[in-house]
Amino acid sequence: MNFDQITEPLDRRLADGLARLAVVARQLDWQAAEAAGLSPTQADILRFVANRPQGVRLTAAAAHAGVRNATASDAVAALERKALVRKCADASDGRAVALKATPKGHRIAQAWPSSFVPIVAGLSQAEQESLFGLVIRMIRQLQQRQLIAPQRTCVTCRHFRENVAPGTNAPHFCAFVGAPMADRHLRVDCAEHESAA
């Protein structure tokens, strides 16, 4: 018997496995959100806003959460009523509105558990590093294909110098901090990110 003939293609099995992990992560998010008195969308937007102290526009929060502007607007209104988010003038355009987390919103966002931590906790350090490299690569490819909202990853930052020292333990370089970096040092959401585009 040849398993290649009776087994679904690898990409389908991988997609199915990742979908199952995403369901577990989403369930953990629902449980944490419910315990905090938030919907998962509200929690996702709160964490996104709290990680951007300079403020963020509603459209960016909606794109990050993968929801329509109207849905994000409803979630922000609920977050405002709960005194977790406030609206203020956008620093780059005084006519526009930016969202900022309140001190209470920051506390909740910082204490929020990462739903994928229990999922990856069983992997060794080396396995986590390997998986992390693949995740960064997938995010980059999704962004290049415009299937994901712009992300503040190292690999899309103007300060990032990729593979300037090949074959070393830290092949990359961050011009912002002036230091070499390994793949494990790459960030998915860097506050100092400046788009290379």
Topology:
Elements: H1 3-6, H2 10-36, H3 40-50, H4 58-65, H5 69-81, E1 85-90, E2 93-101, H6 103-111, H7 117-120, H8 125-144, E3 160-161, E4 172-174, E5 179-181
Antiparallel strand pairs: 1-2, 3-4, 4-5
Helix pairs in contact: 3-4, 3-5, 3-6, 4-5
Q: Could you describe the 3D structure shown?
A:
The chain has 197 residues and is mainly α. It is built from eight helices and five strands; from the N terminus they run αααααββαααβββ. The chain folds into two domains: 8-111, Winged helix-like DNA-binding domain superfamily/Winged helix DNA-binding domain (Arc Repressor Mutant, subunit A, Orthogonal Bundle); 123-185, no CATH class. It is 49% helix and 12% strand. It has a three-stranded antiparallel β-sheet with strand order 3-4-5, with no helix packed on it. A two-stranded antiparallel ribbon has the order 1-2. A hairpin with a 4-residue loop joins strand 4 (172-174) and strand 5 (179-181). Helix 3 (40-50) packs across helix 4, helix 3 (40-50) crosses helix 6 and helix 4 packs across helix 5 (69-81).
